[in-house]
């Protein structure tokens, strides 16, 4: 999430009432999760396991819960609770806006686009030309939809990320300040749920086709011309490269990459990154030829046991 204008380190520290290390006028341009941070961004870290990763990331401002040596060219925000203060900053720079109509006055809708009854279009949404949005679709604030897009009934774009911190008193939610981006010529089936990014965009690129009842987690990027069948569940921060096919009920863990032109067969459970140009199935998913060999070997076990009994 980039700020509308640059802020200084001191201004940010004043918002969350914390100490800082670095020049008062050190520039702060935005805030992001660690996998998408850039120069000028704030990243937060609250566990020693990830200190080095955050300090060595592309982010130039680190919101951290311990006084550490500040890397050259960077600045620190010293916080008792970085998770809480990251939420404070998200709400400060991207506050919730109450809806006052089914289609917000700030929404921009292109020529030839048809919005069917009972569709909700939130604040600052952009929809391109010649789209068809079927009844009971919900499009949350800040979503961007290209041209020639079809979205079927009951789909929700831009619900919050499923991202919580487990505290003694209960689960504390990380506030979602990102959005959903749907590029041109995408079809989305009925009853799909595509969550907004925490600070960035959940993206479905040009020409991809989604069946009914698919879940796409926060900050995931689905490439061009992908084909995804019903009841697939994709966790957050996944990268699906171009022309990937996933058949029904595939489940994918967070933070991995599916290579270009991979095919994942029905009910596969994907627990690690998969290379492109191959076919996979099973749980955990493996290359199909290897998996078939394993299954063939397993089927021989009863006959092997019988042969051993006869000896």
Explained architecture:
The protein is an alpha/beta fold. It folds into two domains: 92 residues, Udp-n-acetylmuramoylalanyl-d-glutamate--2,6- Diaminopimelate Ligase, Chain: A, domain 1 (3-Layer(aba) Sandwich), CATH 3.40.1390.10; 184 residues, Hexapeptide repeat proteins (UDP N-Acetylglucosamine Acyltransferase, domain 1, 3 Solenoid), CATH 2.160.10.10. It is 15% helix and 31% strand. Strands 8-11-14-19-22-25-28-31-33-34 form a ten-stranded mixed beta sheet. An eight-stranded parallel beta sheet has the order 7-10-13-18-21-24-27-30, with no helix packed on it. It starts with a strand and ends with a helix.
Write the layout of secondary structure elements.
Layout: E1 2-8, H1 9-16, E2 19-21, E3 27-31, E4 41-45, H2 51-55, E5 61-64, E6 75-78, H3 82-93, E7 108-109, E8 114-115, E9 120-121, E10 126-127, E11 132-133, E12 138-139, E13 144-145, E14 150-151, E15 156-159, E16 164-167, E17 170-173, E18 179-182, E19 187-188, E20 193-195, E21 201-204, E22 209-210, E23 215-216, E24 221-222, E25 227-228, E26 233-234, E27 239-240, E28 245-246, E29 251-252, E30 257-258, E31 263-264, E32 269-270, E33 279-281, E34 286-287, H4 288-299, H5 301-310
Parallel strand pairs: 3-4, 4-5, 5-6, 7-10, 8-11, 9-12, 10-13, 11-14, 12-15, 13-18, 14-19, 15-20, 18-21, 19-22, 20-23, 21-24, 22-25, 23-26, 24-27, 25-28, 26-29, 27-30, 28-31, 29-32, 31-33
Antiparallel strand pairs: 1-3, 2-6, 16-17, 33-34
């Amino acid at each position: 999430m980039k700020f509308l204008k640059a802020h200084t380190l001191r201004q940010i520290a004043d918002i969350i009432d914390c100490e800082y290390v670095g020049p008062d006028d050190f520039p702060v341009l935005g805030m992001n999760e660690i996998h998408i941070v850039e120069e000028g961004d704030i990243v937060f870290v609250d566990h020693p396991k990830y200190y080095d990763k955050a300090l060595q990331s592309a982010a130039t401002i680190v919101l951290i819960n311990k006084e550490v040596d500040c890397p050259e060219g960077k600045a620190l925000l010293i916080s008792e609770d970085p998770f809480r203060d990251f939420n404070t900053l998200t709400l400060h720079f991207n506050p919730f806006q109450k809806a006052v109509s089914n289609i917000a006055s700030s929404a921009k809708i292109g020529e030839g686009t048809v919005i069917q009854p009972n569709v909700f279009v939130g604040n600052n949404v952009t929809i391109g030309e010649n789209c068809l949005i079927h009844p009971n679709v919900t499009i949350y604030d800040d979503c961007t939809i290209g041209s020639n897009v079809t979205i079927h009934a009951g789909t929700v774009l831009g619900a919050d990320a499923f991202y919580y911190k487990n505290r003694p008193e209960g689960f504390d939610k990380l506030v979602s300040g990102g959005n959903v981006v749907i590029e041109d010529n995408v079809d989305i089936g009925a009853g799909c749920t595509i969550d907004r990014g925490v600070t960035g965009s959940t993206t479905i690129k040009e020409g991809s086709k989604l069946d009914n009842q698919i879940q796409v987690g926060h900050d995931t990027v689905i490439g061009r011309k992908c084909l995804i069948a019903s009841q697939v569940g994709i966790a957050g921060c996944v990268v699906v490269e171009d022309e990937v096919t996933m058949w029904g009920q595939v489940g994918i863990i967070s933070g991995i990459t599916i290579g270009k032109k991979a095919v994942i067969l029905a009910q596969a459970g994907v627990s690690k990154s998969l290379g492109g140009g191959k076919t996979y199935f099973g749980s955990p998913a493996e290359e199909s030829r290897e998996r078939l060999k394993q299954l063939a070997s397993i089927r021989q076990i009863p006959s092997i046991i019988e042969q051993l009994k006869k000896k």
